[in-house]
Backbone:
């Protein structure tokens, strides 16, 4: 049996990462298992919609799930509708 990989992807977007990801969870987890990754992260943009399916799929495959989210912080209130120059 080949040894476990010593590398873990920590920046991974899935089909739930709107306009930025294309990877489907099941094939992603299957590939991590095939490559014997000890863990795999899910860091979709601005949401955690796939986190439960990702977590349970990883647990079933014997891959440690790492959950995260890529978020953006904007100046001012979310109710402001005027443009800002970022400065």
Residues:
């Amino acid at each position: 049996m080949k040894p476990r990989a010593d590398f873990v992807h920590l920046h991974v977007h899935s089909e739930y990462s709107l306009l930025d990801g294309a990877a489907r969870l099941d094939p992603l987890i299957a590939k991590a298992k095939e490559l014997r990754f000890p863990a795999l992260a899910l860091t979709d943009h601005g949401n955690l919609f796939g986190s439960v399916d990702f977590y349970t799929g990883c647990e079933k495959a014997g891959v440690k799930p790492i959950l995260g989210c890529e978020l953006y912080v904007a100046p001012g209130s979310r109710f402001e509708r005027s443009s800002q120059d970022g400065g």
In short: The chain has two helices and two strands.
